[in-house]
Amino acid sequence: MKSPMTSLMETNNKTRLGILLCLLLLVCANLKAQLPRRPEPPRLVNDLAGILTRGQVDQLETLLVNYNDTTSTQIVVLIVNDLQGYDVAQYATEIGQSWGVGQGNQDNGAVVLVKPKTSDSNGQVNISVGYGLEQYITDAAAQRIIDQEMIPSFKEGNYFSGILKAVQVMMDLCSGKFTSKEYTDDKAQALAGFLFLVIIGVIIYLIKRKGQSYSRSGAGSMWIPSSRGYRTGGFSSGGSHHGGFSSGGSHHGGFSGFGGGHFGGGGASGSW
User: Fold this and answer.
1) How many CB atoms lie within 10 A of CB 127?
2) Contacts of 77 (CB under 8 A, 6+ apart)
3) pLDDT by residue (tens digit) across 185-196?
4) Whole-model pTM above 0.90?
5) How many CB atoms lie within 10 A of CB 77?
6) Which of 142, 162, 195, 213 has the fewest beta carbons closer than 10 A?
């Protein structure tokens, strides 16, 4: 038979355990509450750090809304000053899941999360993709986008350029203009560049054969369509993905809202 003292000690231990569990639950709830809530009215570009100009935000929003309207794929750009103790990948995945980025029946959403560099902390970036986009934006492709399209621009202080190049590559991947394998395959890109130069050489040779001078034939004007043909033919040439879009108000009623997509942790992260 337990003594009164033993029973009292057991009761106190259970009370302390209960209090500890309650405190842990409160801490977890507080962490969740620190994540930004889904924007109302809904927007795809959310610069909570204030590093982009109004025009840059509008240009990105127009681009992404038009892409959502034509494909139903939703790409969210979120810029924050503080990750609130979260790992950058966990933060982006939580945003994608809690906001419901993408369509519920397709899970075709992606989150581009940027935490700018400050005097006392490194910059961090993550691309998180929904289940339905993992076949188009593989982890390797997401890592290459971060390493080659985003961080070089971020290091120069040009966040807009890095984000714009990243979302354009992501849209190209999801639209099938080129595959993740083509985008990440250095040999394929090198071969494409070589073939491009060969084609230019053949064009110049044919022009000369016809007795036209190179300068009079407007070779410079031929270079541009040839370059575009190379791009849409299925290969990426690195950092040259930012020439095809301009700002403006071409989306009519704005972004209509999120569809409830699901995320499973696919994507990649980087820091500088």
Assistant:
1) 27
2) 44, 45, 46, 47, 60, 64, 112, 114, 163, 167
3) 975 555 555 666
4) no
5) 24
6) 213
